[in-house]
Amino acid sequence: MSDRIRVILADDQSLFLEGLKTLLSLEETLEIVAECHDGQQALEACRGQRPDIVLMDLNMPIMDGVAATRAIKEELPEVNVLTLTTFDDDERVFEALKAGASGYLLKDTPSQQLVEAIKAVSSGQSFLQPSIASKVLAEFNRISTPAASTPQRPVVRLQEPLSQREEEVLIWLSRGCSNKEIAANLSLAEGTVKNHVSNVLGKLGVLDRTQAALMARDLGLI
């Protein structure tokens, strides 16, 4: 079926990989097009299969998940990457996001949430598990804070400013909230939030929600 989401799985643990394949194969909207045991295999599979999304483990031999994500996004920017790992304090999670991953998920995530994340990321959205969203922002704040002797970074100025509502949407987005959650917090329709998010991404000149969340720091919104 042409409307199915084409997925590549990359994980060096054969048992987990097999279980993940079995689980996702039950979802009619997904199609597993390749299984890989290291980052190099994932890159080569992407070249041949041109998937919609790669579920990428961070800890793999030959080429780890961060390096593979960077290589895939540089060569095939249309391929989305969703990072999978065991612990939410894995320091390479932030590196994977900087390398171009559009989301982060723990391996013990419930199956329904995993499928929702795949659908979101494959459609160009970002998905940050709540347990990591605050840590990503904290890490970004840490590396972005200049030393006393370092000149202050210039304030980002947009060609077209965000409206008050768009700023509110961006703030909730930066906290890792989905469109549904933002809609509930702001008492808006989910479709309205989706339109606001699209406008925010366009005005910020970014491709996804992760990059928008990071830019919110430069705008002084978080």
UniProtKB/TrEMBL annotation:
Instruction: Name positions with the PTM 4-aspartylphosphate.
Output: D57
* Alphabetical list of InterPro entries matching this protein: CheY-like_superfamily, NreC/VraR/RcsB-like_REC, Sig_transdc_resp-reg_C-effctor, Sig_transdc_resp-reg_receiver, Tscrpt_reg_LuxR_C, WalR-like
Iron-sulfur among the record's keywords? no
- Which UniProt key words apply to this protein? DNA-binding, Phosphoprotein
**Record domain HTH luxR-type: where:** 155-220
Gene3D superfamilies from the entry?
3.40.50.2300
Which SUPFAM superfamilies does the protein's record reference? C-terminal effector domain of the bipartite response regulators, CheY-like
Q: Where is the Response regulatory domain?
A: 6-122
Q: Kindly list any coiled-coil regions of this protein.
A: none
By what name is this protein known?
A: Response regulator transcription factor
Top-rank taxon: Bacteria
